[in-house]
Amino acid sequence: MKAPVELSPVPVTTAPTRRLTQLFAGLVCYGTSMAMMTRSGLGLNPWDVLHEGVADRTALSFGTVTALTAVVVLGLWIPLRQRPGVGTVANVVVIAVVVDVVRFVLPDAHHLAWQAALLLGGIVLNGLATAVYVGARLGPGPRDGLMTGLSARTGASVRLVRTAIELVVLASGWLLGGTVGVGTVLYALAIGPLAQFFLPYVTWSPKRG
């Protein structure tokens, strides 16, 4: 049985260049992956189903809803005793900006092959991006802090906790009118295993420097 990956936050003063670069690279990739999936037209990831549902009901922009949802999720950290870090704040701002910029320059896909490429590429990139920025150990984003906090408190694997969260969010977004498709189901089932697979390879540790 593999030992769990150490994900507790480390002060930003420790290997700052290496870890801040990893943090922002991960966040940019995460926002890009979100935009790729939305442009595929084959279904949104569970959080974006929720974002779209809220945006449609409030007339707020997609990016604004993404940021506001992150703030609400931060409130759920309190009983889990999670502490925000540099990565937490950066997550709220960077992802919301990047997803809007990439959506602006990336057109909707209309051919199935291109749609499938955007969807599958977006899902894999999202799993990698999650592991990269969480693995920088500068404080997880609001949604991933909920994932790691629940995993730590319950002893359940990251894979199980992440999948459970995605399914709950998906149901809520669908009830609000968000778009659900084959990509939504694939993402919900794949993201937990993908994040858990990549974490051991990208998580910063003193041995790696």
Structure description:
α1 runs antiparallel to α5 (112-135), α3 (62-75) packs antiparallel against α4 and α3 (62-75) runs parallel beside α6 (142-154). The mean pLDDT is 88. The chain is 71% helix and 0% strand. With 209 residues, it is mainly alpha-helical. It has helices spanning 16-40, 46-58, 62-75, 86-105, 112-135, 142-154, 158-175, 182-202. It has one domain (16-202). The chain has 8 helices and no strands.
Secondary-structure element order, as H and E?
HHHHHHHH
The pLDDT mean sits at 88
Indicate the percent of residues in helices.
over 70%
Strand residues, percent = under 5%
Categorize the overall geometry.
Answer: globular
Oligomer status: single chain
Total strands: 0
The biggest sheet, with number of strands, parallel, antiparallel or mixed sense and barrel status, is: none
Number of domains: 1
Separation of termini? Answer: 25 Å
Low-confidence stretches: none
Q: So how many helices?
A: 8
Structural class: mainly alpha
CA radius of gyration: 16 Å
Output the keywords.
8 helices, 0% strand, 209 residues, single chain, mainly alpha
SSE blueprint:
Elements: H1 16-40, H2 46-58, H3 62-75, H4 86-105, H5 112-135, H6 142-154, H7 158-175, H8 182-202
Question: What's the gist of this structure?
Answer:
Keywords: Membrane, Transmembrane, Transmembrane helix. The protein is mainly alpha-helical. Helices cover 71% and strands 0% of the residues.
